[in-house]
Amino acid sequence: MDITGKWYLETVFPDLAIMLQVRTVHYSGDTPFQKVEVLESDSFGRSLVLDGKTQSTEVDEFVYHEALVHPPMLFHPNPRTVFIGGGGEGGTLREVLAHSSVERAIMLDLDQEVVELCRRYLPNHSQGSFDDPRVELVYQDAREYLANTTESFDVMIMDLVDPMEGGPAYLLYTEEYYRIAKARLALGGILVTQSGPSGLLSYQECFTTIYKTLAEVFQHTMPLHAHVPAFQTLWGFTLASDSPLA
User: Fold this and answer.
1) In a shared domain, residues 141 and 85
2) What dihedral do alpha carbons 198, 111, 73, 244 form, nearest 10°?
3) What is the pLDDT of residue 167?
4) Residue 98 shares a structural domain with residue 37
5) Catalytic site residues?
6) Residue 197 and residue 99 share a domain
7) Quick one: pLDDT at residue 183?
8) Distance CA 212, CA 232 (A)
9) Is 60 exceeded by the pLDDT of residue 208?
10) Would you give the distance in Å from CA 39 to the centre of its chain?
11) pLDDT exceeds 80 at position 172
C-alpha cells in the first residue's frame, strides 16, 4: 500500500482507526467552540471535520440528511413550522425546504463561524437554502433559545455533534433538554435527533442511551439507522412524539 502524501487519521476505537488520503486542505483552524477542518479526498470529495470527527462529505451527505429529515416530515400530516438545532452545513435545512408545506424554518447553531465556513467551502450541501425567505438563522445555544421562546413547532430536528463530554452539544442530549424541547412541540409534533453510531461494535457508545433518554420523556419513540459510508458504520436516528409514529 502506498502511504505517501498527506493522510487524515480518525480514531474509531482506542485500537481502531481509519485513514483517508487528503488531496487538499481547504481550511484548518479553531473557532471559540471547536477545531474545524475542511478536507478534500478522491473518495469523498470535500469533508467537514469537527474536533477530529467527520461530520459529512460531499459524496454521501445526502444519506445522513435524508435519513434524519424525511421520516419525521413524512410522519407529520402537515409540517409547517420546523426547528433545526445545529446543522451548520445546511444539508438538513435543504431537505426540510424540499417539503412544500413548510412555511417557516428556524435554524439555531451555536457556532456562526462553522456556518460561514460551510457556506464558503461546502456550498453543495446547502444549495442556496440559507437564502430562502422561509428561513431564519439564529446563532445561539438551542437550550437557552427553547427555554425562553413561546413559539411552537410541528417538527424539531436535532442535527448536533455527538455528545462528547465537554463538547459544545453535550447538554443537548439530556432528559432536561428533551423536556424543554417537548414543551415547544405543537400538538402532534415530532422530534428527531441524530443518535450516533448504531453498528454492532458501536451502538453502546451513545445510541442506546439517547433512545432510552427520549423514551423517558415521550410516549412513543422509534429508532432508525442508515449506513453512511464516510462514517464506516451504521448511523442512528431516534424519533419521539406523544402521538403514535405510524
Assistant:
1) yes
2) 60
3) 66
4) no
5) 159
6) yes
7) 98
8) 24
9) yes
10) 19
11) yes
The answer to whether 17 touches 9, Cβ cutoff 8 Å, is yes
Phi, psi of 95 (to 5 degrees): -70, -35
pLDDT of 14: 80
Instruction: For cell 478536507, name the residue.
Output: 39
Torsion 166-220-84-120 (CA) sign: positive
* Cα 56 from chain centroid (whole Å): 9
CA distance linking residue 12 with residue 158, whole number of Å = 23
Which residue range(s) make up the domain with 158? Answer: 61-241
- Are the C-beta atoms of residues 79 and 101 closer than 8 Å to each other? yes
Q: Is the whole-model pTM more than 0.90?
A: yes
pLDDT, tens only, 146-160: 999 999 999 999 999
Instruction: Give the closest residue to 118 by CA, choosing from 52, 179, 55.
Output: 55
- The per-residue pLDDT for range 32-69, each reduced to its tens digit, is 999 999 999 999 999 999 999 999 999 999 999 999 99
3-state secondary structure of 32: coil
Looking at the fold, whether 95 and 20 belong to one and the same domain comes out as no
